[in-house]
Amino acid sequence: MSRGMMMLSLWITVLSMVSIGQAAWEPPAKVSREECVKFSQAMQSLPEIKVRQKEDIFRIHVVGMDWDLGVMVYEPEDVSKIPRGADGKKVGFFLLHGGSGDFRSMEKLALLLAGRYGYKVVSMTYPGRLYLEDPSRRWPGDTINPDGTVRTPIWKKGERITPDQVEVTLDTTKRHRYGTRTVARARPGTIFYYRMAGWPFAFEEGMKDACQRHLPAGEYSIYANGHSTGGPLIHTMLQRVSNIVGMADVEGSPFGFIYSRVNEWSGSLGKIGGVKMEAAKTDKDFSTWPDPFYELSIRSWRDIARYSGPEALGKEGAKGLMRLPMLMEEVFEEWEGEKHEPQFKAEYIITRNGVKQLREAAQVTAKRMNMNASDTEALIKRFISYTRELTGPGVKPVPPILYNIAKDSRDHSPEAYREVILPMLSAMSPPPRVCVVEYGAGVHGYTKAEKDLPLGIAPAVTKVWYDAIMSGFFTK
Amino acid sequence: MCYKNIWGGRIAFMFMLLCLLMLSAVPVRASGELPSQISREELLKTSQKILSMPKIEWKETEDIFRISEVGMDWDIGVMVYEPKDVSKIPAGADKKKVGIFLLHGGEGDWRSMENLSRLLIKTYGYKVVNMTYPGRLYLQDPNRNWPGDTYNADGTARTPIWKKDELITPDQYKVVKDVTQRNRYGTRLLAKAKKGTLFYHRMAGWPAAFETGMKEACKRHFPTNEFSIYVHGHSTGGPFVFMLSQRVPNIAGVLAIENSPFGYINEEKHAWSGSLGKIGKYERVSKKRDTRYDPFDELYLRSWRDKARYYGPELLGQEGPKALMRLPMVMEEVLEDWEKGKMEPCFKAEYLVTHNIIGSLKDAAHVTADRMGLSAMDTYKLVNRYVGYTRELSGPGAKPPSPVLFGITKDSRDHSPEVYQEVILPMFAAMNPRPKTHLVHYGAGVHGYMTEEKDLPQGVGPALIQVWHNAFMNGWFTK
User: What is the least distance, in Å, from the CA of A309 to any CA of chain B?
Assistant: First the structure.
């Protein structure tokens, strides 16, 4: 038997490890570390499908402004090879990155999905996050400069936010989770201010447009995925794009109104293994986001540390503190390696149910556009709706959701799902089909390499997704 | 020099009150024996009592003196604390005045021991001599604050000043990185002396200057017939005061709170935990022996990492592993602490003595002997002298090891009760003659035992000086 045939048969064996042929496939409740290693090894040893990768930058005009949006599209060179799911439609994935990055944060997953399974993948960058000034998309320098200026979004090519539009302040009200936050406040009346008020609308329209351009209804069933901060944003799409058939999640946060309850439940410091932190008495409660819509959070090494610390707790326990100098060096090194990503964030108002701020953002936008009372009210309603499911007659129900959670993820503990997220989803009318798969390895950044898992738990997660897609978990 | 006069003329009344309070403070046991454990509750009570006692007026004087050793001049500095009225220095059970000789830890200079010195002088009126290691005093400025940082963007580093106005120039060293001990230290930066330079020869000669400087400081300020001296060296200072304890005739005992032992015992202490230590109920994270081989010509440049290597384990003891859940804030605390402390010397060359690196001590002695053109016999003697710094003196004519009153705090990575029971105390018991020892375990505090914590504004300092006082007065050291 040739090496290629051997690999193929190995892959077929792996794909059939979870019984996709059964009448009623159910996702496994748990995937052990050993199984993760097995999937990873099998996947690594397979030949790759040749993938074509193309960036698509398109401009939309919403709320009276132009917005340049970018997606990276991955598909097999031979597009006829894109597989079809149980519903007979081609499989398309729509991906959104997390709170720190752009499409590059999702590249490992995108290449895994396109290069191993042959799916078409559209990986979108949030409005303003793409460094439109350079084709490499690498943001230059650091987020906070020695002269006190900070990195700001580029929502439209050639339009830069000038320092006079920004007031930089320090926030220590959430220090236990974030350390000292550097925030850039937009001065009222500036472009920055209006962009900060208008981006939620542009985000919605941009995602819808991206799906329509690359994963048209009738040809594709779309499986949506948003990592972390991308989770609540992708949840808003589940009912707004007709051919999104489900959410193939991993480490994505839920709808904003649910995620704020999760943070209330965990005191915003999360939970790792048996350790649940009480809310810090000196910190402000920020389970529902308290800060204004015109505040942009500027990330730093602290945002690496707020994941590295809990992850070290889960993986090493006490040892993490006994080697604190090295742990700190690892944080600084990781930051050095990632600071070319956007590393700023405005999305808390959606992801943490900032209804008050969304209302204000809509009002500011309406006023700028001279809207009448009725249009203003419609805009407010639209903005506020981004934090929860749509309801009422004629509304598309929330499609099936398959959550996948890593072992050491502070904000995605099994208990948070059992005690908060699943009950809130089951209270919806109609309740969506929801399952949670727990993995015996991995961290919030689920493609992160660890011993015997060069792509983290991603190979195992994508295998579960494959089974779900092919067995009709999402579509039957 | 500064003078403190806090209580004006009511001295007699205050003295009586002081005596009453001294007798009523918590760690005093009816039997006069020293406690083995002092709970946090007892520490709080003792702290309140000691800190509310009337204060004795005192004066502080810096004494910079020059010694000549191994053919070079060395400027040594001590800060001396004594009652304004020196006749008030109390006598211990042996009728000799109580003098305390202090050495700071691996990071600092005399200022690291200032809180303890002042607590001792104003509470009990002992005379205190607080010495700085050779080269650590910033002799170029009377405020002694080292300027800038330990390592600069242009590749230059902070280096010792062993003699006023003699500055080590950048051409005398190369800065190198060491990642071989990353679990404990992170990445270490080292200024490696170039052969034949002044820096190189100072790095080879300082051990002899350290010995002579300490002996000279005791002679200048604690005359043999007048004082019994009790020595204490915090952390890295510990092996040096142990070494001194048999070389100065009127040293009566060692006050070993968070004080590392003789170099050869300290080496075993670190080997016990793979140099990572142990905290409270948490298992040792390593048991793998991790022997050090630092050459004598390498100067360790400290950074925020050295704050972190204590702060991490201390948080483990105080908050448990869950402190990792607030890592961004923890890191900010480390960096803030470093910013505040970096005017201290923050460099270190003393591993050869503290970790019993015999090969490097021999190398240093040989380099010094070569420079001085010593004969084979004198070279042999110098090598033996250097090697002798890491363990107790023994044999005919050697002063027996002094009694040692050990003390350990609750959350100190390198000073766990287990390492004392399993390594340190058995090795002291094996000495010939065997010194008297006692271990007090304090139910609070960290390695920097004067560090403020909730309800303990001076850490465990007040309780430990109470224990020391009882030991002096009950004759634990001298009877």
Answer: 5
